[in-house]
Specification:
The complex is a heterodimer. Helix content of chain A is 67%, strand content 0%. By secondary structure, chain A is mainly alpha-helical. Chain A has one domain. The longest helix of chain A is centred in the middle third of the chain and has 22 residues. Chain A starts with 12 loop residues before the first helix and ends with a helix. Chain B is α/β, with parallel strands linked by helices. Chain B has 2 domains: 128 residues, no CATH class; 195 residues, Restriction Endonuclease. Chain B has 11 helices and 12 strands. Chain B has a 7-stranded mixed beta sheet with strand order 2-1-3-4-5-6-7, with helices on both faces. Chain B has a 5-stranded mixed beta sheet with strand order 8-9-10-11-12. In chain B, a hairpin with a 3-residue loop joins strand 3 and strand 4. In chain B, helix 5 runs antiparallel to helix 9, helix 7 packs across helix 8 and helix 9 runs parallel beside helix 11. Chain B is elongated, with a radius of gyration of 22 Å. The two termini of chain B are 23 Å apart. The chains are: A mainly alpha, B alpha/beta. The interface between A and B is medium-sized, with 18 and 17 residues.
Chain lengths: 189, 338
């Protein structure tokens, strides 16, 4: 998964608001998570609500719920991504979520929790390295890692409380579910 | 709520109650140690606001005794003699206080002041206020009509019972409301400075006294948060940081209070993000009914006012009454404040 600082977030007001949270330690993590998901949905070319609600992610969700074992499940997910030619960062994250979910007690919840948390991690990682140092919220790399953990923990909490996870692989139900979660994450309710 | 103040000479005078006059009770800036008279009025308001029934106020040359009672969790009436001392008390004073308390029905004596260890429980003025959730500086928020008047003033309408300019009264009501809910100092610049690059006031929230700037907007049809308003608020924040950051720290939130907001929740969120991007301070829009509801809610549980995480609440684009209720329930669940 690419986390290089050479692919930073676009220079928009929404992403500037997120960056303020990386700079200052007095902005609560809860607010930063909201700003992150608002910004993530404001990009015309990479709307993360649309990316995560795509049919290939719904397929990965189904594999995560019904897969026999982690290795076979990840193989199935990879095969589907190649077959449908829907390779993307979101699909990579979904594959990772499949691996985590098969074998977990509650597969569906684990999949969606991992999906949104890892997507948040990716979005944070592409900028955070430019905001680590003595004048920033995170003065060391260890603090930055801890900060990312807190942020993805907050995202997982919102996802848990947002809406019931769909019980079918119906792409429309999946799309509606992802949209509801994204709305909650952005604090638009 | 009726009670009498009694001086040592036996002269009585009524307690000052009521909206408009109560606004003038409080001086603009707080001295390090309030003079005895201010301490008396603050102590009375804070005790009554916390559910104490005041039976009698007795003034002596070196101290003031507030005889009061409070129901405990079993419904039993606990009598107290709260003594506000003006300086160090001698043994004779202490003996006299204890004797009077015994004669007065075995009241529990609590001494407020700086005193070496005695047989009487003694707390400092600041500890006394802190135990009761902070001072109550004006009766105004405890008036039953406060919420409805606040809402009317927020819509630039003058309630029948008040006289003056609605926008100016709205600022005063907002100050009183913030002072009550935050249980902390709220400084208002006042109308005479309205043409300067300044917000309407500064509020200090939470135990760390986090700085929050605020602006009160009385608009008949509700206030619309335009891009130009965000630029103006950002100027206020930059100006404040230039002057006072070294002294008061950075601004943690900008509160915008109005009768209601014309904008959609999404648009408010957008504006809040813009201010955050511009100067690193989130905009929190508070409608008058939410502020009124918060006052009414915390008037039932005044001791918890300082226990709420106001910085977190104000980091939201819109403050909503259920958020405050949830925060209060969390503080009550902790069970640390009684």
């Amino acid at each position: 998964m690419g986390t290089s600082a050479s692919h930073p977030s676009p220079s928009t007001i929404n992403w500037h608001a997120v960056a303020r949270g990386y700079e200052r330690d007095d902005i609560p993590v809860e607010r930063i998570a909201q700003e992150l998901w608002r910004a993530a949905q404001s990009e015309p070319n990479a709307n993360w609500s649309a990316l995560l609600s795509s049919p290939i992610i719904a397929t990965c969700f189904d594999i995560a719920v019904h897969g026999d074992d982690p290795v076979t499940a990840v193989r199935s997910a990879t095969r589907e991504i190649v077959r449908t030619r829907q390779s993307s960062i979101a699909a990579d994250i979904a594959k990772h979520a499949v691996l985590r979910s098969v074998g977990a007690t509650n597969r569906a919840e684990t999949f969606v929790g991992t999906l949104f948390s890892e997507a948040s991690n990716y979005l944070v990682s592409r900028d955070l390295s430019s905001y680590v140092g003595p004048t920033f919220r995170n003065q060391t790399v260890a603090q930055a890692i801890q900060f990312k953990k807190e942020l993805s923990g907050r995202v997982a909490e919102v996802v848990r409380q947002a809406a019931p996870v769909p019980s079918t692989r119906d792409p429309q139900a999946w799309q509606a579910y992802v949209h509801r979660v994204a709305v909650e994450l952005a604090g638009r309710t | 709520m009726k009670f009498r103040f009694e001086s040592s000479s036996g002269t009585t005078f009524p307690a000052r109650l009521g909206g408009e006059r109560a606004l003038n009770d409080e001086p603009r800036s707080r001295p390090v140690r309030p003079p005895a008279d201010e301490r008396m009025t603050t102590a009375v308001r804070t005790l009554v606001g916390n559910g104490f029934t005041l039976d009698r106020v007795l003034r002596k040359p070196r101290y003031l005794v507030l005889d009061c009672t409070r129901l405990d969790e079993f419904g039993a009436e606990i009598p107290y003699a709260i003594v506000v001392a003006d300086g160090m008390l001698g043994d004779g004073d202490l003996r006299s206080i204890e004797r009077d308390a015994k004669i007065g029905g075995g009241r529990h004596v609590v001494l407020i002041g700086e005193q070496p260890p005695t047989t009487v429980p003694c707390v400092t003025w600041d500890t006394f206020l802190a135990r009761l959730g902070g001072p109550i500086k004006t009766w105004l928020p405890l008036e039953p009509t406060f919420k409805s008047q606040l809402e009317m003033l927020g819509h630039n309408c003058l309630p029948d019972a008040l006289a003056g300019r609605p926008d100016e009264l709205f600022e005063e009501y907002v100050q009183a409301a913030l002072q009550f809910v935050l249980a902390n100092r709220v400084h208002r610049y006042g109308q005479e400075r309205r043409f300067e690059v300044r917000p309407d006031g500064i509020a200090f929230a939470g135990p760390s006294a986090a700085t929050c700037l605020y602006d009160a907007k009385a608009y008949r049809d509700g206030f619309s948060v335009e891009r130009s308003a965000i630029r103006q608020f950002a100027d206020y924040v930059h100006d404040f940081h230039q002057r006072y950051e070294h002294y008061l720290g950075r601004v943690r939130a900008f509160l915008l209070i109005s009768g209601h907001f014309q904008d959609s929740p999404e648009s408010i969120q957008e504006r809040s993000s813009e201010l955050l991007a511009e100067c690193g301070v989130p905009l929190c829009c508070v409608s008058a009914d939410v502020l009124g509801d918060s006052v009414a809610l915390l008037a039932q549980h005044p001791a918890y006012r300082r226990g709420l995480d106001w910085v977190r609440l104000f980091s939201r684009a819109r403050l909503q009454a259920p958020d405050v209720r949830k925060e209060l329930q969390a503080a009550m669940k902790d069970g640390l404040v009684r």
